[in-house]
UniProtKB/TrEMBL annotation:
Signal peptide positions on this chain: none
Basic and acidic residues compositional bias, start-end: 788-801
Residue stretches spanning the membrane: 124-149, 169-189, 235-253, 265-287, 313-329, 341-362, 383-408, 428-452, 498-518, 530-553
Segments for region (Disordered): 778-801
InterPro entries: AB_hydrolase_fold
Keyword Transport: no
Protein name: Lipase (Class 3)
Superkingdom, natural source: Bacteria
Organism encoding this protein: Lentzea rhizosphaerae
KW Transferase (keyword) present: no
Keywords: Membrane, Transmembrane, Transmembrane helix
Lineage: Bacteria, Bacillati, Actinomycetota, Actinomycetes, Pseudonocardiales
Length: 801
C-alpha cells in the first residue's frame, strides 16, 4: 500500500446505472456543473452558489482527513429521453438478436471442433438477423402494399373515400403509395445504423487489430468495434430493397405473369431480386470469419469486394431495381399474393435456422463446459451455456408479433371488409396459445412461490441468516429486511428461469401454428377463442409500444423510463445485427480511461472508479483497460468500487465469453485488494461480486472468494465495520434499513434495495480502502454516534440474538 503524502488527494469518479440520473443526484449535491465532456458524455462536479466547481467532502482515514474531489460521468443522454431514442425500442427484436451473439459460450483454445462450431454459430446468428430484417419488410408490405394500396385504394372500394376515384385510377399512384412507406422505413433503418458516437481514431485502429493480439483475459476484452459492420449494414439494406421488389413482383415462389416484353422484364427483375438476396445471405455467412481480415487469409478478398465503392455500387443497383419495380407495376392487382407468401417463407427459414442454431449450440456448450466445470453451481452459465438459443427465439417471435400486432389495428381502422393474408390467422393462433400458456405459467409460478414462502415463514425457516447478523438488536429492521431478502434472492435466482418459460411458451405456440399451417388445416371452431385471445395480445403489444413512443414525445420522463431497454441492450456493439442503436460502451469506456489518465498526471492523485448497477460493468471494463495501459507505478493509484452490481449473478452467467469468472478474478488480482463491492441482500438487481458460498456459522459470516493476490479460496470471517457493515473479502454487506441515522450525514429511512448506496456511511470507507488509504483489517475506528438509541432486545426465530 502506498503511503499517503501531504499532497495526496482522492478523485472519486462515479458512473450511474440504467435509466440515467440527474447530475445533482450523481454527485450528491444540490447543484452541479459540467467540467468536461461533449454534451452526450458529461463529466460533472458539485457546484457552489456561484456555479463554480467545488471540492467534495474530505475522506476520513485513520491518520488524517484526505481531500476528495467527487466527479460523475453521465451517459444517460446516449440512450434515454427524447422521441428519437424512444423509438429505438421498436427495434427491440433486432437488439435482442444482437445481444444473443454476445451470449454464445466461450471457444476453448486449441480446440478445432469448438472453433468451427463458433464460426458456424456466429454465421447462423447473422443469417437469422438478416431474416429478421426481411420479416420486418414483408410485414410492412402486408400493411402498406396489400391492405392499403391494393385493397383499400382499389377503384370503387368504399375505403378512405376522401381520395377521389380519378386519383386512384392514375397510373403508378397506388404502387407508389404502397412502396413509399416501405422505402421510408428502410431509409430510417439505414440512418439509425449510421448513427455512431464520436470515438477517437486510436480506439478504432486498436479494434481492427484486436484479433491479431492475444487476449488480456480481463473483463470486456472483446467489446470493440467490428470492422465488418459497414459491409453488414449494406447487405441488410440491399436485402431489404430486394425483398420489397420480390414481394411486389409476386413473391419468392412465383412471379407475376404478363405478355410480351413486359413479362420478360418482370422475370428479369424477379431473378435479379433473388440474386441480390442470395448475395446478401452469402456475404453475411462469409463475413463472420473472425480471421478474414488477416492479409494471408482469403477473407481479405471478401473485404475488398465489400469495400466502400463496391458497397455503394451494390446499393445503387438495389435502388435501381426498386425504381424498375415501380415502373413495371402500372396498376396493382386486387391482392398482393407475394406479401403473404414472403412472410410465411421467411418465418419457415427463421424456424429452420433457429433449430439448426440450437442443435449446434449443444455441442459448443459441452465443449466449453470445461472452462466452468470447476465453479460452484451458482456461478456457472445459465442453461449450461445454451442461453443464447431461447433469447434468439424470443427475438424472432417478437419480430413476428410486432408486425401482426400493427396489421390488425390498421385493418380495423381501414374497414372490416379488408382481408389479411391467411398466414396471419396462424400468427394470431400462435400468440393466443402462447398467451394462454403464459397465463397458466404465471399462475403456477405465483402459486408455487407463494406456497413456498408461506410454508417457510410458517415453520420459522431462516432464509437470511446474514440479515440476523446485520440487524442484531433491531427487531423492526430485521423483520423488514428478512422479507426483502427473500424476494430479492428469489428474483436473482429465478429471473433467467422466467425468460426460459417465456421462450418455451412462445415456441410451443409457434409449433402448434406451424404444424397446422404446413398441413393446411383450417383452425377448428374450438380454436377460435385462442385466436381471439391472440388478437388481443398482439393488439396490446403494438398499442403499448406506440403509446410508449407517444408519451415520450409529450413527457420526456416517460421516454427516459422506456430507455431502460436501450440501456441494457446498447452496451453491446453491433455484431449480429447492424440496424441497432450504437454501443455506448465504445464511447464511455475510452472517455473514462482518458479522464483517469488526466488525473494521474498529478503524482499525488489517486483515482477511484465507482459504478452503480450497469455502471459497475462500465467501470470494471475501464479498470481492465487501465491495467493494460498504465505502468505499474500508476496502477497502484487506481481503485474500484462497485455498488448494486450484477458482475457475479448475471453478466458472467449470461455472457460467459465476454465477462467470464476468470476475468473477474484476474481483475481482482490486478487491483491487489483495491476492488470493493457494496451489496445489500435486499437488492433484487445487485448482489455479491467478490464472494460466494456464504454461510453463517457460530455467529460469523464465512465464505469463499477472491483474495488480494488474485487467487480464490476460503476467506477469513467477516469483520464488522464501524457503522454495522460486514466486510467479507472484497464484499461490504450493508445493513438495510441503515443502522443510523447519524449526525452530520444524509439519512435514508426504510429499505433502500437497489438505490442510493452513497447514503450509507460505509461508502466512504470503501472508497478509502480502494484508494489504498486504509487497510481492511485495520483496528476499527470509533463508531459514528447514533442519533437514536437502537433496540437492545431481539428474540425470535429469525436468528436475532
Amino acid at each position: 500500500m502506498l503511503i499517503a503524502g501531504p499532497d495526496t488527494r482522492v478523485v472519486e469518479l462515479r458512473v450511474h446505472g440504467v435509466q440515467g440520473t440527474t447530475p445533482q443526484t450523481l454527485v450528491d449535491a444540490v447543484a452541479a456543473v459540467d467540467v468536461a465532456g461533449d454534451g452526450l458524455g458529461r463529466i460533472v462536479r458539485p457546484a457552489d452558489r456561484l456555479r463554480r466547481p467545488a471540492p467534495g467532502p474530505v475522506l476520513q482515514t485513520e491518520g488524517r482527513p484526505i481531500p476528495r474531489v467527487v466527479e460523475g460521468y453521465l451517459w444517460g443522454g446516449m440512450t434515454s429521453g427524447g422521441v428519437a431514442k424512444a423509438t429505438w425500442a421498436l427495434l427491440f427484436p433486432f437488439s435482442i438478436a444482437n445481444v444473443a451473439h454476445w451470449m454464445l459460450p466461450p471457444v476453448p483454445e486449441r480446440n478445432l471442433p469448438a472453433h468451427l462450431l463458433g464460426i458456424g454459430l456466429r454465421s447462423l446468428l447473422r443469417v437469422f438477423a438478416l431474416l429478421l430484417t426481411a420479416l420486418l419488410v414483408a410485414q410492412i408490405s402486408v400493411v402498406s402494399l396489400d391492405l392499403l394500396a391494393a385493397q383499400c385504394l382499389r377503384p370503387g372500394k368504399p375505403c378512405l373515400t376522401s381520395i377521389p376515384a380519378d386519383v386512384r385510377a392514375l397510373p403508378w399512384f397506388r404502387t407508389f403509395l404502397g412502396l413509399l412507406p416501405i422505402v421510408a422505413v428502410i431509409a430510417v433503418m439505414r440512418r439509425v445504423s449510421h448513427v455512431d458516437w464520436r470515438i477517437e481514431r486510436k480506439e478504432i485502429a486498436d479494434a481492427e487489430d484486436k484479433d491479431q493480439q492475444p487476449s488480456s483475459g480481463l473483463p470486456g476484452a472483446h467489446v470493440a468495434t467490428d470492422p465488418d459492420t459497414p459491409a453488414l449494414r449494406s447487405l441488410h439494406v440491399v436485402a431489404a430493397l430486394a425483398v420489397t421488389s420480390l414481394i411486389a413482383l409476386g413473391g419468392p415462389l412465383k412471379q407475376l405473369t404478363a405478355t410480351g416484353g413486359m413479362g420478360v422484364a418482370i422475370t428479369v427483375a424477379w431473378v435479379v431480386a433473388l440474386v441480390f438476396i442470395g448475395v446478401s445471405v452469402l456475404g453475411v455467412l462469409l463475413l463472420d470469419d473472425p480471421t478474414g481480415g488477416a492479409p494471408h487469409r482469403g477473407g481479405r478478398w471478401l473485404r475488398a469486394a465489400l469495400g466502400k465503392k463496391p458497397r455503394r455500387a451494390l446499393l445503387a443497383l438495389a435502388v435501381l431495381l426498386m425504381l424498375t419495380t415501380l415502373g413495371l407495376l402500372e396498376q396493382l392487382p386486387l391482392r398482393v399474393p407475394g406479401a403473404d407468401v414472403t412472410v410465411q417463407v421467411v418465418a419457415l427459414l427463421m424456424a429452420f435456422v433457429l433449430v439448426l442454431f440450437g442443435l449446434m449450440l449443444l455441442p459448443a456448450a459441452l465443449l466449453a463446459r470445461r472452462t466452468w466445470a470447476a465453479l460452484p453451481r451458482e456461478l456457472r452459465p445459465w442453461a449450461g451455456g445454451w442461453f443464447s438459443a431461447p433469447v434468439l427465439a424470443i427475438a424472432g417471435l417478437l419480430g413476428g408479433g410486432f408486425g401482426a400486432g400493427v396489421a390488425l389495428p390498421v385493418r380495423k381502422a381501414l374497414g372490416s371488409d379488408l382481408h389479411l393474408p391467411v398466414g396471419y390467422d396462424y400468427i394470431t393462433l400462435l400468440w393466443g396459445v402462447a398467451g394462454a400458456l403464459g397465463l397458466l405459467s404465471t399462475f403456477a409460478v405465483a402459486s408455487f412461490t407463494g406456497a413456498v414462502r408461506w410454508r417457510a415463514f410458517r415453520k420459522g425457516k431462516v432464509w437470511a441468516r446474514e440479515a440476523s447478523l446485520l440487524h442484531s438488536g433491531r427487531m423492526r429492521d430485521l423483520r423488514a429486511a428478512t422479507r426483502a431478502w427473500w424476494w430479492a434472492r428469489w428474483e436473482r435466482n429465478h429471473g433467467h428461469h422466467m425468460i426460459l418459460i417465456i421462450a418455451s411458451v412462445l415456441v410451443v405456440g409457434a409449433v402448434v401454428a406451424t404444424v397446422l399451417r404446413i398441413r393446411n388445416v383450417p383452425p377448428a371452431t374450438w380454436i377460435a377463442p385462442f385466436s381471439a385471445f391472440g388478437v388481443g395480445v398482439l393488439g396490446l403489444l403494438a398499442v403499448s409500444l406506440l403509446r410508449a413512443v407517444y408519451l415520450a414525445a409529450r413527457q420526456p420522463e416517460s421516454g427516459r423510463r422506456l430507455g431502460i431497454i436501450a440501456d441494457i441492450a446498447q452496451f453491446w456493439p453491433r455484431e449480429a445485427h447492424p440496424i441497432v442503436p450504437p454501443c455506448y460502451a465504445l464511447k464511455v469506456v475510452p472517455e473514462l480511461v482518458a479522464r483517469v489518465q488526466d488525473h494521474l498526471r498529478d503524482p499525488g492523485t489517486r483515482v477511484v472508479l465507482c459504478g452503480h448497477s450497469q455502471g459497475s460493468l462500465l467501470v470494471a471494463v475501464a479498470a481492465a483497460r487501465l491495467l493494460e495501459e498504465l505502468p505499474s507505478h500508476d496502477r497502484e493509484r487506481i481503485g474500484l468500487v462497485t455498488a448494486g452490481s450484477q458482475l457475479q449473478w448475471a453478466y458472467p452467467r449470461a455472457f460467459p465469453a465476454v465477462v467470464p469468472h476468470a476475468s473477474l478474478a484476474r481483475l481482482s488480482g490486478g487491483l491487489d485488494g483495491r476492488w470493493r463491492a457494496l451489496c445489500r441482500g435486499t437488492d433484487p438487481l445487485g448482489g455479491a461480486v467478490m464472494t460466494w458460498r456464504r454461510q453463517v456459522f457460530d455467529g460469523m459470516l464465512l465464505g469463499v472468494g477472491y483474495r488480494p493476490d488474485g487467487s480464490e479460496g476460503a476467506l477469513a470471517p467477516a469483520l464488522r465495520g464501524p457503522t454495522g457493515a460486514l466486510v467479507l473479502g472484497g464484499d461490504h454487506w450493508l445493513p438495510d434499513p441503515q443502522r443510523g441515522p447519524f449526525p452530520g450525514r444524509r439519512w435514508r429511512s426504510g429499505v433502500s434495495a437497489h438505490s442510493d448506496y452513497t447514503s450509507d456511511p460505509e461508502w466512504d470507507r470503501a472508497v478509502a480502502i480502494a484508494a489504498g488509504l486504509l487497510e481492511v483489517d485495520a483496528p476499527e475506528s470509533p463508531p459514528l454516534p447514533f442519533a437514536r438509541r437502537p433496540e437492545t432486545r431481539s428474540r425470535d426465530a429469525l436468528g436475532g440474538s
